[in-house]
Amino acid sequence: MKTLPARGLTYTPEFQGLSPNTGSERSWKQSLEWFEGCTRFHGKCNTVAESTPWFPTRLIDLGLGASAHLRLIDTRRIPPLGRYVTLSYCWGSAATLKLTGETSDAFMTRLPESELPRTFRDVIEVARRLGIRYLWIDSLCIVQDSAEDWSAESSVMGRVYRNALCNIAATASADSQGGLFVDRDARMVCPAVIVSQWSDCPPSTYQISKRHVWEDGVSDAVLNTRGWVLQERFSAPRIMHFAADQIYWECFELQACEAFPRGLPSMVRRHGVTLPMKELNITNGGKELRPFWQRPALPMFDGYRVWNEIVEAYTCTRLTKSKDKLVAISALAKEARRALNDDYLAGLWRRHLGWELGWQVSEEDSHSRPSDYRCPSWSWASVDGKIHTTDYGSDAHLFLKVLDARITPSGDDDTGEVAGGFVRLQGPMYAVLVIPNGSTSLPGDRYDVFLSDRSTGREIWREVSAATHLDVDMANTPDTEEKYYCMLQYSSDTDIWCQSGLDEDYYLVTLLLKYDGINKNYSRQGMLQLMSFERGQSGYVDDLSSIRSRREEPMDQDHDRDSDEVNPCTGRQPVARPIQRLRDLELCHHDPNIPREAYDHELGYTITIV
User: CA 320 to CA 2: how far, in whole Å?
Assistant: First the structure.
């Protein structure tokens, strides 16, 4: 967006006095109007906190008056005399004052305000202006060198934010020294009114403003790339965002900013890539997002889809400490568990575990597994990077059966860190070889896949389109190849978008697994999708060596294209049903070389994945 000359532009009266700094009296007056309106009149927002007053273990007591001394209090010994506010911020690399075992006694006597970073001092000013005496900041209210205290406090993080009167967000600050208040050019914030002059029609009045106001100011801001902040935003009843251009307000009944103090216009909301967090913004088309504990009963699958949307948003964020992957979303897991009435298993759910095992990494983003154990390989939380969850339809057919699944928590919080776990499955299996083909074009198209349980080594792609999604990429060298075992997860007759257009076709989704001969179990390595487009292809590659020559041959222009005589949308013959299609692909058979705990001719192989 470029700065426009003021000449010829008229700003609407409510914006003409917009100040050049977000710490001004003008900005403060607007923020206070939102805060008081919400706390007094918003029914949804005022039912978020628990009915019986609840407080974190420690709070910062700001005292009475602007000159009062700060001190840390233990709420178990000194009950607070009122509500508290919280702070969401990026730690960054800047050194800052922290609560430790060594500083605890001193902080209980007096907290040196002059030594606090700028963001902390600014939020103290905001709290005092709101007339709130108590403040919670993680680095000053959790003992930073005590694993025991951190574990206890992190397990109730959702309650900390849910019971706060307001969450103050340093949305534009990269670290604790960035502060809340910023200078700005008010002309870049204010919508401008232009009256057009046309020779052939009456004059028209237009309001010009940024289309992606919320995305630019809040959703894509540096604070909301931090993993912990997702559950902070989800849990808090109301949030005051101090962004790079203006102050934004977010609660369950209003999303507004200084440019649009009465709420975001419908046009701005409609064109947004993501709507405010309070409106289930990730993929659900702007449906209202209320906490799980406020939701009416959801249809069976809908509740799990809501969780999947949260997971996809969460895995786009970053964590300073990789081990916090499950802890930083545990508050949402607790609320989801209560709403779904289901067992939580390291990011997945028991009742639909067979479906949820089908997550895959996004190949638009880098992905890796941590060197230290974090959770079982079958959980999306075992991978760092963006995740896509299973998108199953009403026509999907689940092949595998979950016989058992268990998680061993590291501590008392069964939604937090994990020490171990397994899932025992039963279903059809086959073996494959996966070989990098050097392609970097399309996601899932970087590997060639061969049925390796036959001496001929026939290649799957001649029968179907195979998309391989590895959780961690293989080395991309010509001589690299890996043997995997596949367990069929589910199939679907669905509409698939291919190069020739929309084709109503059939696909199979399988788990890619690697066997550990020492421990006699499997680990998940990725997903393999087999998509059948019924293009008249037949036959397999004769042997594995032929892939080398095929790479050097020119592409047959008609090989990957539907026949001109067939309409890809309406002219196809009916697709075979699941079991028959497996037989056509010769994937439904007994292979004595596949490691397993048991085999049943009808139900398939029994295996354990860790």
Answer: 35
Contact 1, 210 (CB under 8 A): yes
Given this model, what pLDDT does residue 307 score?
Answer: 87
Distance from the first to the final alpha carbon of the chain: 51
Q: Give mean pLDDT, residues 491-495.
A: 64
Residue 490: band (very low, low, confident or very high) from pLDDT cuts 50, 70, 90: confident
Displacement of CA 172 from its chain's centroid (Å): 20
d(CA 251, CA 236): 8
In angstroms, the CA 69 to CA 347 distance is: 43
Instruction: Give the CA angle between residues 264, 267, 269 to the nearest 5°.
Output: 50
How does pLDDT run across 313-349, given as a tens digit for each residue? Answer: 999 999 989 999 999 999 999 988 988 889 999 999 9
Report whether pLDDT(111) > 70.
Answer: yes
Query: What secondary structure, in 3-state letters, does 103-170 show?
Result: CHHHHHHCECHHHCCHHHHHHHHHHHHHCCCEEECHHHHCCCCCHHHHHHHHCCHHHHHHCCCEEEEC
The confidence score (pLDDT) of residue 494 equals 52
Other Cβ atoms less than 10 A from the Cβ of 316: the count is 17
Angstrom distance (rounded) from CA 233 to CA 248 = 13
Side-chain-side CA neighbours of residue 298 (13 Å): 20
- 3-class DSSP assignment, residue 383: coil
For the stretch 430-478, pLDDT in tens is 888 888 876 665 656 677 777 754 445 555 544 456 788 889 887 655 5
Do 230 and 313 contact (CB within 8 A), yes or no?
A: yes
Per residue in 256-273, pLDDT (tens digit) is 999 999 998 877 665 443
From 292, 28, 22, select the one nearest 170 (Cα to Cα): 22
The DSSP symbol for 84 reads E
The encoded tokens of residue 418 equal 């994990």
345: helix, strand or coil:
strand
Q: Which residues pair with 70 in a beta bridge?
A: 111
- Domain spans of the chain? 21-187+213-273, 295-424, 428-554+565-609
- Does the CA dihedral 604-605-607-609 come out positive or negative? negative
Instruction: Enter the tokens of residue 67.
Output: 């000159």
Q: What are the structure tokens assigned to 303, written together?
A: 């509740």
- At which residue do the structure tokens 């009114």 appear? 193
Alpha-helical regions (H) of 202-259: 213-214, 227-235
